[in-house]
Amino acid sequence: MLTKVETMENIENKLKDLGISGKEARIYIAALKIKKATVAQIASATDIKRTTVYHCLDSLIKKGMINKTTKDDKKYYFAEDPKASLNNLLRERKDTIANILPDLKNIFGQDGFQPEIKIYRHKSGLKKIFEDILTCREKLCRYYISGFNIEDLLGEKFVDEFVKKRIKAGIKSLSLRSFKYKPKREKGIPHIKQRREVRFVQEEVDIKPYICIYDNKVVVISSKEEKLGFIIESKDFSDAQKAIFDIIWNSVAI
């Protein structure tokens, strides 16, 4: 069992996590105990100088932890209900975070982001690529599918489950295909029901890797013999790939 001193230290440490530390915490705890007190009474109970008590009380009032009243020309300070005041303190922190977050994200987007390439190997690694595709914020993925069936690499069951998750996530698929790509699993199912639009390139066009473009990322998966995939995360590169895809989609494919 904790002693009174240990209990008080524990409370002070937790208050510190909420931004109420040191002398402020001691003064706040004293105000909770005394209920209603003058500055002199709080100074005596905490052994803190009056000038410092005044300063800390002003800070605690701004945080909504302490309030004051006047009686017979004397100022008395009292602690607000801890449940209400601490909840208000948390709400204020959340509001502060919400207000500053757009500016911080803007700074991060301008200077903090560095293009990168993540490499994935074997089936277990390649499946993680498809998990990332499901995070697509634009809700639109552009695919080149030609040289080989991804089902042959990861299995029809996995691909079927991925398509279901993609549909549930509201992500539309634009699929540029070779005529040779005709998976059995799609037979009899209209593309529109799977949030998919398909166009075809000439038979002689053979795009060996499986390619998917979304957000600021480009996925490339090599043939089933190599079992290698990577995600290139670069806004400039993905924008260029989207532009090339759209040119083919709108003027070459049928």
Q: What does this protein look like?
A:
With 254 residues, the protein is an alpha+beta fold. It folds into two domains: 4-85, Orthogonal Bundle (Arc Repressor Mutant, subunit A); 116-251, Endonuclease, Chain A, CATH 3.30.870.10. Helix content is 49%, strand content 21%. It is built from nine helices and nine strands. A hairpin with a 2-residue loop joins strand 7 and strand 8. 17% of the residues are buried. The model has no long low-confidence stretch (mean pLDDT 82).
Tags for this entry?
Arc Repressor Mutant, subunit A; 9 helices; Endonuclease, Chain A; single chain; seven-stranded mixed β-sheet; alpha+beta; 254 residues
CATH second-level architecture of the largest domain: 2-Layer Sandwich
Order of helices and strands: HHHHEEHEHEHHEEEEEH
User: Roughly how many Å apart are the termini?
Assistant: 77 Å
Shape: rod-shaped
Quick structural gist:
With 254 residues, the chain is an alpha+beta fold. 49% of the residues lie in helices and 21% in strands. It folds into 2 domains: 82 residues, Winged helix-like DNA-binding domain superfamily/Winged helix DNA-binding domain (Arc Repressor Mutant, subunit A, Orthogonal Bundle), CATH 1.10.10.10; 136 residues, 2-Layer Sandwich (Endonuclease, Chain A).
Strands, helices and their partners?
Blueprint: H1 4-17, H2 23-34, H3 39-46, H4 50-62, E1 66-71, E2 74-79, H5 82-112, E3 116-121, H6 122-133, E4 140-145, H7 150-154, H8 156-168, E5 172-178, E6 196-201, E7 210-214, E8 217-221, E9 228-233, H9 235-251
Parallel strand pairs: 4-5, 5-6
Antiparallel strand pairs: 1-2, 3-9, 4-7, 7-8, 8-9
Helix pairs in contact: 2-3, 2-4
